[in-house]
Amino acid sequence: MSTEEDKKLPVKKSVARLAAVQYLFATLIDENALTPLKLLSLYQNNEIENDLNINIGYFNKLIEALTLNLTSQKLIIEDYLPKKKLEQQNLISQAIILTALCEYSFIENIPRKVLINEYTNIASSFLNNNDEIGFINAVLDKVLK
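User: That's the sequence. What structure does it adopt?
Assistant: Structure tokens below.
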């Protein structure tokens, strides 16, 4: 594969973030809907998208952070949502915000602007509503301090 082709492929950590959001989204719908191993197999077997190359180690770190800290992270986010509770948001928005906060709080030091950009891009891939994407961006800007 040429360097030019490499530049077109999504970054492996970005794919791990996307997969972690997908996992949390499925879990918010039904705790037994999807296991991390099943989701990884979908990526590895090219059943999701054939040009997405996932960083498995980073995905596992994200899932561990989510599993161990989800409840506490929900409480932190509630402090930043005076008008709307987190549970009132659509499930994909909840999954994006919670995954971003867990990554920021419990995984390697990544600049907040990078994470806000990454998760806003993820939001754009799932949501067509600019207000909802803007809401996610604003919440992340407040929470990731």
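DSSP finds seven helices and no strands in the chain.
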